[in-house]
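May I ask for a protein sequence together with how it folds?
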Amino acid sequence: MKIRNPTFGRIFSSSGAVTMISRLFIASLFLSVLLQREVSAQNSSSASASFETEAETESSTEIEAETETHQTNTTGKCVMHGICGDMEGFGDQTCRVDQPPVPLDEEFHDQLKGFCPELFDKYGSTLCCDSDQVEKLTESLLYAQSLLGRCPSCFSNFRRSFCEFTCSPHQYTFLNVTEVAPTSSDALEMEPDLPKTVVRKLEFHITKQYMDDTYESCKNVLMSTTNGPAMDILCGPWGSYRCDAEKWFEFLGSTSNGYSPFTIVYRAVDTNAKTSNIDFSGIVSELVEGLGGDVSELKGGFEPLDLPTYSCAEVPPGAKKRCSCVDCPASCPAAQPLPPIPQEWTLFGYHGMVVIMILTFVVGAGAIILMAFTNYNYDSSEYSIGSVDEVMPPKCPMDEVDFMEKMGKNSEEAINRFFRSLAETCAANPWAVIIPGIILTSLLCLGIHKLEITTDPVELWAAPNSRSRIEKEYFDETFAPFYRIEHLIITARDDSMSVYHNTSGAKEPEKFGPVFNKEFMYAILDLQKEIEAIKTDSNITLSDICFKPLHPDNDHCSIFSYLGWWQYSKEEIDKEVESTASEGLFDNYLDHFKFCSRNPVSPKDSTSLKQSCLGPFGGPIDPNVVLGGFIKPGEQHEEPPFKDSNTIIITYVVNNYYEKEKNEKAREWETAFLNFMEDYVKNKTPYFMEIAYSSERSIQDELKRESESEITTVVVSYLIMFLYIAVNLGQINSVSRLLIDSQIALGVAGVTIVLASVAASVGLFGYLGVPATLIIIEVIPFLVLAVGVDNIFIMVQHYQRSERLPSETKAKHIGRIIGEVAPSMLLNSFTDSASFFLGGLSGMPAVRAFAFYAGMALLFNFILQFTCFISILSLDISRREKNHYDLFCCVQGKSVEKMKYDKGILYAGFKKVWAPLLLKFPVRIAVIVTFFGWLCSSIAVIPYINVGLDQELSMPEDSYVSTYFKAMFDYLSVGPPVYFVVKDSGLDYSDYHQQDLIRAGDFSESLTAQIFAASKISNRTFVAKPASSWLDDYIDWAANENCCKYNIKTNDFCPSSEESRKKCKSCGLSGKLEDGRIPPELFETYLKYFLQDNPFAECPKGGHAAYSQAVSTKRVDENGTAYRPTASYFMTYHTILKSSSDYTEAMKEARMIAANITDTLNKETNSTRHEVFPYSVFYVFYEQYLTMWRDTLQSLGISFITIFVVTFLLTGFDIYSALVINLTIFMIVTNIGGLMYHWNISLNAVSLVNLVMAVGIAVEFCTHIVHAFTASKETSRLERSRDALVNMGSSVLSGIALTKFGGIVVLGFAKSQIFRIFYFRMYLGIVLFGAAHGLIFLPVLLSFVGPPSRRGH
């Protein structure tokens, strides 16, 4: 039934006595009066002013008289009153009436006054609502209060229009019923006196100013459970992004919101709009009254309701506080200016360090060239730094030798004597040395079976005493470890499956991404069902291990998938209902999606479908978490275009336990899940999608698989080095002695000693219980080969180049040779071992373990080489002297040629070609300038080396995890969660002042306010959303009378969803609040109730789902029911993080925010014990990068200091040698840093280990050359440099550089990106740069500024 709007025609229809002529006459008279007034106004301004004043006075008098008459003679009129049954789909229906207001039952006065006190002050108790309507009104306002109540002015503005709408005795002045329906027959049968019609649609005339002001006061209010605006729910399909005052009130009046029993059409009247200067009211009133009409009907009976409003920064009547800063930006104090973004240091518009190094090179190179040419023919003493070809001074008597030189002479002679004696003993009694050596080494190697290999990334890279590790342990113990996550990222191959649907009545249908194609959705649905059906050999299913947030009331697993919006039901997806918004259109799954993407916490959408947006597990499904690919790189959107998604993300949340053994079931199921997904991706993936997947155990499994898969690569690399050593160690002078002089067995024995030393080191630490890492197994053999094999080459080649003296036996010959070379070997090995042992001071477990294992392996290698290898060398010499074959030592050859002593091809090449060329004066100058320029260029770029390890590099290229990482970086639209943890420090949450330091309130520096402020500048802070606050929601929960309930029989907790009054009764907590706060004596009593209560429509703030794990509690009294909160966390999200620098900066910013919150808590409580820290699951992995430069400089600094001290002591207190060695090693390591920049090798734990190893290998390239230089008997620096290069250079080249080169090349073909980048590239750089500095730069440097010969020698 339609009701027509009143029109002016009704004014005349009631006066039959007035003829048409008289009506025309009166009308013309009316127009004449108007015209006369207008002309008069135009002709005389003074008269006009006088006239207007008089007219206003008359009008005012008339209005006052009318008002007085109205108040005296009328009591108002209702257009609706009471409940007239219900209607299917719309609930209780309101009766349509046309009657005066009636007194409200006295027992409901207090209930109505609780929300609408102004009604009684304004109208008394005679109203247009009955007890049933009061209950419905308070129920609706309770729900609204749970969403908006945290902002008093917002809720005050909001409720007043509903109070007037429902109960005002003057409804007829602003409400116009335009559509009614018959009262249901069932209702009339039960109560025959009910009105015969119910309201189906009405117009609500209200001022636009009220609507705008109310919206402005409410638009920023947040729901802490979702970290999002309350408008996401209250503004229906428009959400907070597209909402405005008009759309908000339109949704509030729509039956599609699920709460309004009939349609309310808000007619906004702009009372501030400009109107004509002519006042018609008095004339029209006179005219209508003269015609017998009703003035109130002329006005249409509708005067727009105009209510006072308060901005969110004001305190409304009846309240004691204003909106918090979190909910009202106008309440926030002026923000402190952000510190400026650190700017890159520049000079002349270029990188500052680059400019400085260019200037340094120009000045330094000029100085070098000038000094070199100035001193070229300058004849001066040995000690002149600039001299080039100085002659050694004559030997001085011993009484002229200073103390330091004497100490040096004595120490070197002592070392020579000791090792000569040791070598003679071992050579003379080889088996007496070899057999005990084998036994002791074997016993040490047996410890390998007790070895524990650590693959847990946390154990590898986070020190036990590091901040992130300590905070992780606190979080895991206090709450629970972060959930185990099983992830699927499924992307449509192309855009061809996109769908179109008209969801708004527009001419052009909207386009939806391919993931909304039903075929795509059905395939995902089938996949999810198969995954949920996975069962292990032990019959473990997903349901056995998954996280169930509402258990035991809801047994569904926490699964985040966009199909959860349709309850994982094909029937729900296929449902279509004719739209009530647009005639001829149907609401379908796409309409439901659009609503849920903006209102994920809504229990019912506003479409005709009336479907829930909550997942089956009872929680909201955030579209940012389940959809991806809707934001292209570089784009930013105020409202994310979720409908453009081409990717969906499915997340299975699995319980994680602090006790690792409890996670075995989950690990078993994850194995089955990974096997299933591997088969599905290979054999069952539909043609239109691509799937990336990962589980909690994936990274650890793949790291292990990666290391195992590269064993072949490592073995081949080592075999090539072994073959080179075995082949090149021998000295073949003729074909007839080929099988005799090859010395392959000796090479194999040398390599075996290297491997035995590594095994002994691993076994020893196995006995000691020190866990190993896969890096140790992969890197240390390479290191020991580099450091140890050159000793073998030097021993063997020096023996080959030194003929036996007539008076020497074989043992004495070996002893003399070893005595000569032992000091440089001791210097080298002891320096390396000491630097590695001190490197164990590093806080990083992987680096520390590597340092200990490497130091011990080098020590064992040195001991075995100077005992067992010398004994084996003695046996091999005996074999060769007896002409026995190399590999078949029992077979004697027929050669009659004697064993010859030859220096070899490399030696000849160095002596005849390389040394003469290198040590020419122009070449030396060019070398110094070139290497100085190289050093400057490396220093210039080192500050710009990237720090971190991008996750995809840690996986093999053929790994499914690499595919997952790539998909994650390309498609995910939200970052990881971050928890701000308030530690158990005695904070009294029941105290109002201390509550204000945490919750969203008037205090602008509270915890939630600071996180909220950070979320507003997410591009700087990496905080994406405000934090969820259990404290705010607890207070909101307590204010809702439908929430807190107790069991009548047990006096214990009862769910708020329990409707039976026989079982449960309200706690009455809402009526006991003090200024909206929970009294301190009740705060701890009902905290557990809140944490156990499941949210539902009438009590949306139940804390079980959101906060059951967020608050750690302890019982106040041993037998009491009150619980005191100890530690708690407040969760938010980081923004999208893609690179290592993003993760590191996000952690740094979160820690700064937490530090500010900590300072505030301590300052406001006059304490020092409170602490807040941020925690996210990735912090423990990325904290190392915050201090990576410091750790790197510390580790390298320890190594350099150790090398300097040991070198100074073992070179006989020769500070010149120590400085030259350290300078050269510094240049090698610095240039490797330059290589890292140019070859995209980031600085992280792996490259740090390699840099520490580089120091050890660099020592090899330097110490032998420097020692040979100081021991040379030549008379000038130039000649000593030539002598050292010729005699030691070939051994260094063959023993270190060439040995490693072949093995390194093999690493370049590894599948692992870590092997190719951090091992192949860095190892290649270490060997090539070390060889270049040791065999090119160092001899040239020594020829200019080498240490002098000791006069005491």
